[in-house]
C-alpha cells in the first residue's frame, strides 16, 4: 500500500463518527446556514471593495434577530441573500459556500469526538503504535479486555490473546516495511532457511512486540523453531503486529496497555501449555526467566539455553550464577559489541528526542537537562540533547564513565545539586531508586521526568501514588502529577522505557540486535555437550564481527583485506576475529 493511500485510510479512521454522533445536515434555510453564508459573503464583499462592516450584527442569533440582518450582501452587483432568508446562488460563490457548510459540520461535532480526533492527531497516533498505521491500534475503540474475548484466526486457531485479530492486514504491512530495513536478519533467513539450524527448538520469548521483533520471530520460525511469545513491556506492543503474528499461527499473548496482572497472565499463558516444554528462552528484562525459575522449576532445569538482551536481565542472571542457582547456560547479548555500540548508543541518540517531542512538544534549545548514567545509553541521550542546544549535566558512579563525560564536555554533578533548576530528568542506569520522592518534591514546576533504562524501577513512581498528589492524564503516556501547592511535574510512560512506550526506534539498529539474538540462539541450541556450562557467557567475538559484516552492504561499504604477511605480523587469522575479547571499542 502506498504512503498516500495509508495516510488517506488513517484520515478516514480519525474522523469517523458513530451514527448516533453524526452531525445533522444543515439546511440552506436554517439560521446557522444563513449565518455561515453571511460570513463568507461578507468576506467576499470586502475583497471586492465593499464595506465589511455593513452588517449591524455579523454573528446573529436565531429567529428574532434575523429581521435585523442587512437586506443584501453585494457580489459584483448581484444580490445573494434576501431579507426573507432566501438565497440566490451565485456560481462563483459555490465552492466557498460549500466550504462554509463543511466548516459548520466540523464545528458541530460533539466535543468528545472533536477532542479525540485532535488528541490523536497530536499525540496518540505516535504513541498507540510506532508506525504509520498507528490509528489502527487505538485502544479507545474497544475497551473490552482481550482476556474476555474469544478470537480465532483464519485457520481456526485460538491459541493467542491479542487486542483485535482483524488488524492483521495493517500489521502485515508494518512487518513488510520493517523487513526492508533489516538486511542482516533477512540475509540470515535466506542463507540458513535450507539448513533449519533451529529445527525442533521450542523457543519461548518475552520482548517488545513491534514490527521489528516480528521480523525476528518469523525468522526464527523460518529457521525451524516453534515460538510462543509475550511482551516485556505493557505499553510497547503494536496491536496490529500482534494480530499479524497470530494470523500466521504464532502463539502471541500481548496487547498495548496491559495491567500488571495482565502482564504476568500473558507470560504464564505463554509458558504453561500442557505437553509443551520450551528448550530456549529469549528474554528482554529477565521477567520470563524469573517466572519460569520461580513457578516452574522442573521446566527451568530442562531449558537448554537462555539469551538475555537487557542490563536488568543480565544482572539477574549474574545474581543466579553467583548464588549457584543458574542450572542452564546463558548468553549475555547486552554486553556484546553490536548491542552496546549500536542499539544502546546510536538507537537511543535518535529515539530520546523522538520520544520527548511526541509526548511534550518541548523545545530543547536552552533547556537544562540531567542525564543519570553515562553508559552507552547515557552517552547517546547526552549527545542528542547537547546537539539540540540543551545544557546537559551528567550523574555517574563509575569514575571511568565520569571522566568520559567530562572529556565530552558535560558537567558531572550529583542529582541533588541541580534538581531544583533542571527542566528535564532522564534516567538510564539500569538501577533502582535513582530518582526518589525527595528529588521529585524538589523539582521545579513543569519538569519533565522520564526513563530510558529498561526497568521501571529507576524512578520511584510508587511514592507518587499518595492521597495528597493528584494525577492528571493529559495525553497517552503523559501524566501531570500535581502537588498541593499547584506545582506539577510531567511524568512520561509512568517511568517505563520512554522510546518504545512513546515513540519509535530506528529499524536498522534493531536489525543489528535481532540478528545477534538469533545467532546466539543458534549457537546455544547447536553447541555440543560441554561447550557451555551453567554460567553466563558473552557472545563470541567472531559472531559480533559477522553481524556487523552483514550490515555493511547497506552502505555500499568495502572492507580492506589483510594480506598473509600482514595477518602473520599481527598474529591474526586474515578472516578474523580481529580483536581480542578484552578489547574495548
Description:
- This protein has 585 residues and is of the alpha/beta class.
- 41% of the residues lie in helices and 12% in strands.
- It has 21 helices and 17 strands.
- The chain has an 8-stranded mixed sheet. Strands 5-4-3-6-7-8-17 form a 7-stranded parallel sheet, with helices on both faces. A two-stranded antiparallel ribbon has the order 1-2.
- Strand 7, helix 12 and strand 8 form a beta-alpha-beta unit.
- The N terminus is likely disordered.
- This is Adenosylhomocysteinase like 2.
- Belongs to the adenosylhomocysteinase family.
- Its cofactor is NAD(+).
- Keywords: NAD, One-carbon metabolism.
- Helical content class: 40-55%
Ends: how far apart? 42 Å
Main sheet attributes: strand count, strand direction, barrel closure: 8 strands, mixed
Poorly predicted tracts of residues: 1-80, 90-140
Question: Which terms would index this structure?
Answer:
disordered N terminus, single chain, globular, 12% strand, alpha/beta, 21 helices, 585 residues, 17 strands, 7-stranded parallel beta sheet
Spell out the blueprint of helices and strands.
Elements: H1 3-15, H2 31-47, E1 74-75, E2 78-79, H3 94-107, H4 111-127, H5 168-180, H6 183-192, E3 202-207, H7 211-222, E4 226-231, H8 239-247, E5 251-253, H9 260-271, E6 280-283, H10 287-295, H11 297-301, E7 305-308, H12 311-322, E8 330-332, H13 337-360, E9 368-372, H14 376-387, E10 391-395, H15 399-407, E11 411-412, H16 415-418, E12 424-427, H17 437-442, E13 448-451, E14 470-475, E15 478-482, E16 488-492, H18 498-502, H19 507-526, E17 536-538, H20 541-551, H21 564-570
Parallel strand pairs: 3-4, 3-6, 4-5, 6-7, 7-8, 8-17, 9-10, 9-12, 10-11, 12-13, 13-16
Antiparallel strand pairs: 1-2, 14-15, 15-16
Helix pairs in contact: 2-3, 5-7, 5-8, 6-7, 6-19, 7-19, 13-14, 13-19, 19-20
